[in-house]
């Protein structure tokens, strides 16, 4: 299956660019920018990545981002991730970025978005990888702060496909951001939100009803509401599931207990994604391999994760048709 997964064309829909900062690059940037970090070797950084829940991860993740100061740093970060995409046959990616993690440290919004966008543009021409950018609001901060960030983003609207919601889910339900999401929809932007990762199934319902999301990030706790599961299957509301992330953050005890295959077989539009690959132990292939290693899945079912991701992506119908053909042609030769 490893070879099949490696060559399978893949689409990533849930990837935080700040979560692709590998310890080696963290060290390089710390040195280049003369930023102090509380570790003496990349090995020590890796050993610190033992998480008990979402918050224990977020504390370390926000600290890691402190080494990102200049446009070139954001370019290097994004370019390194795109190299992984290239090596792993990821043909399209929709990337989250968290501007508030940077603007709160005095980094201009423009520095962040221009560094990331320049790498995405270069990957389009040099690597043939297409992409979209999704700006996330940090839900532990206020809605006023999100609105201020949204206003800073408006001059760069053409570079952004949509807005999302991430960070601490407990105590910060989707409806806290109804107003800023309505502003985004009024500007023609699509919306997504993390919901039902650590928070209750109720958050998935409010993300759909109050924030008008086109897909739900994680969403695995939907199983706590049978009616909701039926509704997600009927409407084909996509869930961007992140298997290795869910194990690392103790959402499930182990991969055997993960519900992604069960949801796939119930007809939900579930997809496989890497979330924060530098922190959670792997990129797209590692996530596919972890699921395939723990669950009974044939080639058609594994390819269905990519077909679902194409259906759930923010690209044109023509682009979807071309990518679907690529996957079906691959499946035909792989049997
Ligand atoms: N959940 C919430 N916030 C995040 C995550 C996540 O999985 N990754 C990065 N920010
Ligand atoms: Zn995430």
UniProtKB/TrEMBL annotation:
Pfam family, one: A_deaminase
Superkingdom: Bacteria
Residues under site feature: Important for catalytic activity: 218
Catalysed transformations (reactions): adenine + H2O + H(+) = hypoxanthine + NH4(+)
Keyword Zinc: yes
Cofactor remark: Binds 1 zinc ion per subunit.
Keyword entries, A-Z: Hydrolase, Metal-binding, Nucleotide metabolism, Zinc
GO biological process, one term: nucleotide metabolic process
Function noted in UniProt: Catalyzes the hydrolytic deamination of adenine to hypoxanthine. Plays an important role in the purine salvage pathway and in nitrogen catabolism.
Protein name: Adenine deaminase
